[in-house]
Amino acid sequence: MQPKQHVAIVGAGISGLVVCKHLIEKGFDPIVFEAHGTVGGIWSRTIESTKLQTPKQLYQFLDFPWPASMMETFPNHEQVMEYFRSYVSHFRILPKINFNCKVTGIDYVVDSGNEEDMVNWETWSGSSRPAVLQRRKVECCRPGYSGGMC
Length: 150
Known about the structure:
17% helix; 4-stranded parallel beta sheet; 2 helices; alpha/beta; globular; disordered C terminus
């Protein structure tokens, strides 16, 4: 049996949660770096009066529908956050998330100085627990990411 491939995921918003869940299902060993103290990405930092702007049926995980008890078409901030927390709990993602762990840099390691011979990525944490972790793959799940620093 081959060892699990390690994958670093930047961000525990909706994209990071989906990526983490699917990587676990495919046999990878993901670790999520979340700069803040909770899941939800931008939703964790919106004002409490914020509601979905699209019907909930268009804003749900394909494999995890809103609970039948959710009667509102446009759930509010707390309901969306509870939905994310339920997803994390249901798919046992929480142990894979490092909260308050901001990624301040990502670099790759090469054996021969040739970018085509990349061995792995190194990620540095900017939290109070600095760490260098080596991963073969990195997924950047942050809004506005366009190929620069994620």
